[in-house]
Specification:
globular, single chain, alpha/beta, about 25% strand, binds zinc ion, eight-stranded parallel sheet, about 450 residues
């Protein structure tokens, strides 16, 4: 058993002084507030936050960072570059890239990641000898990096949607598709769970999955988390309206896909009816602020969704940035820009969104908070850096960046100490992995 003390810690009811706790069997225990440090306790050097959830990730998109800005364009031109990268990956290079990215995440303060996984098959679209070779590469990568993983295996069946219906797959998309829902489900059912790995389901989008399969997908998902890209771009809404005469949200609602186990990723371009449907079913909405601004997606109705009943979560999606504090701040700052008001979310709201609500959306309801019995996942943010010196402990999330993360503990295991991941430098791991991929 290890015992810790922090001068300030974020507990479910806010930032508290003099917090003492122990970790036993991977869980918090003996939590006390307003106490002095004991002689045998490890003193944490900064403000203690609960574990932070990365609600939406495509690990391999990290290979596009800093490489897609020369030609202008849009989400759709960016997607062509993403497809070119997807076409080059195999299980070995997928493992190297994902391991480096998960190490970068853990060092930045993420303690659990939801990997929205659609790159399943070989370059010709045929299953590998192990049909989950790519998923198993992600599981190995997360396990080595020490980060919790929810592998959200995505059903992907069509090449897009037009006014006349779903389009055939283009060559690179054949890697994503299992052909039909039954083959997707059988592959999903072969994925095993481990101590720090859980399995979830995903509908890639209403573009890539015809609505007449949604009932089967809902049954296949069962009690697992179910994630879906939703209304990231106006073109998706237009195509869905043209073919189905419904918004994407209405289409999911018609088929019973909304609910408290479902997370709508992005939820950017919504109607009033959509917001009511998402909130009324307690569907979570995962915002990805640094990606949404990078891809010129727009700013979704975050506050209105919360007011309607939808919990929010945060993700780094394409990893133009990997920094949970920047995502958390981005949510509030985008709201400020479109409303002319500060404090659309309180600091407590933002921490809850980044931690407990994210954990629940990824199928870890016993984590993301510092309470007795919860998973012992936590992050220590230095309060004496060039960015954070002078900040109030209860406002440190508005000042700190991932560079201020000093210690990360996941399931009681120290994964990051003195700002360094136990596997070494993520920069070196990324350079090696991306150099190899560039030569592939
Ligand atoms: Zn995504």
């Amino acid at each position: 058993m290890t015992s810790y003390w922090a001068a300030h810690a974020w507990l479910p009811d806010g930032c508290q002084p003099g917090v003492s706790f122990a970790v036993e069997d991977g869980r918090f225990t003996q939590l006390q507030i307003g106490v002095e440090a004991g002689a045998d306790q490890e003193i944490l050097r900064g403000v203690l936050l609960p574990g932070l959830a990365n609600g939406h990730s495509h690990a391999f998109h990290r290979g596009l960072r800093g490489r897609t800005h020369a030609g202008g364009g849009s989400f759709w031109t960016w997607r062509q570059e993403m497809y070119a990268l997807a076409a080059r990956l195999d299980p070995d290079s997928y493992l190297s890239v994902a391991r480096a990215v998960f190490v970068e995440m853990a060092q930045a303060g993420y303690t659990v990641v939801g990997e929205f996984h659609y790159l399943h098959h070989d370059q010709r679209g045929n299953p590998y000898a192990d049909p989950n070779a790519m998923g198993h590469a992600l599981i190995q990568a997360a396990t080595e990096a020490g980060i919790r993983l929810t592998l959200l295996d995505a059903c992907y069946l069509s090449g897009g949607l037009s006014a006349t219906g779903h389009l055939p797959l283009d060559p690179v998309q054949t890697r994503f598709s299992d052909g039909d829902v039954d083959h997707w489900q059988s592959r999903l059912d072969q994925l095993g769970e481990f101590d720090q790995v859980r399995i979830g389901a995903a509908v890639h989008s209403v573009r890539a999955v015809p609505a007449d399969t949604f009932g089967k997908i809902r049954e296949a998902a069962g009690q697992r988390p179910l994630h879906v890209h939703l209304s990231e771009q106006p073109a998706e809404n237009a195509a869905t309206q043209a073919y189905y005469r419904r918004t994407p949200t209405e289409l999911l609602d018609d088929h019973g896909l909304l609910g408290s186990r479902t997370t709508a990723v992005h939820a950017t371009h919504l109607t009033d009816t959509d917001i009511k449907a998402l909130g009324g079913t307690q569907t979570s909405a995962c915002f990805c602020p640094t990606t949404e601004r990078d891809l010129a997606d727009g700013i979704g109705p975050a506050r209105r969704l919360v007011d309607s009943g939808s919990p929010l979560t945060l993700g780094s999606d394409q990893h133009a940035v990997i920094d949970p504090l920047e995502e958390l701040r981005g949510l509030e700052m985008h709201e400020r820009l479109i409303t002319g008001e500060r404090g659309r979310f309180t600091p407590s709201d933002l921490i809850m969104i980044a931690s407990e609500d994210g954990y629940r959306s990824l199928g870890w309801p016993e984590g993301g908070r510092i309470t007795d019995g919860a998973l012992a996942d936590f992050v220590v943010v230095r309060s004496d850096s060039v960015r954070t010196a002078g900040a109030h402990p209860d406002q440190i999330a508005y000042a700190a960046t991932a560079a201020d993360v000093d210690q990360v503990v996941i399931g009681g295991q120290v994964i990051v100490r003195d700002g360094r991941h136990r596997l070494g430098s993520p920069a070196e791991l990324l350079t090696t992995a991306l150099d190899q991929l560039g030569r592939a």
